[in-house]
Amino acid sequence: MSYYVSGAHVSVEALAASVVKIAGRDVLATWKVLISLVMTPALYLLYAIIATVIAIKADAPLNSIIWTPFLALGALPCIGYAALKFGEAGMDVLKLVAPVANVPSASLIPS
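Predicted structure:
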């Protein structure tokens, strides 16, 4: 299952069918974008349902139970965007600190 979700088979098939491709990275990247376009909203919906179930099991007031899925669906994209921005800034800092610390950047920065 993960083989099909990762898109490795699509990359191999595109590479075999093409005469000009050296590597099927563009097809693999497109496949990952398409999968994420489907999986991200589905996972956000699942997380909102889980949050609502937790609110119900915790005997939260009815008003809180009603607002829980909306708050979760509104907060999750904001959290994802913030994590992306913090990760990007952290990687920039890591690239700046590695030469100062005289540490090979290949050992710190994943490829």
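Summary: The helical segments are 2-6, 8-17, 25-57, 62-100, 105-108.
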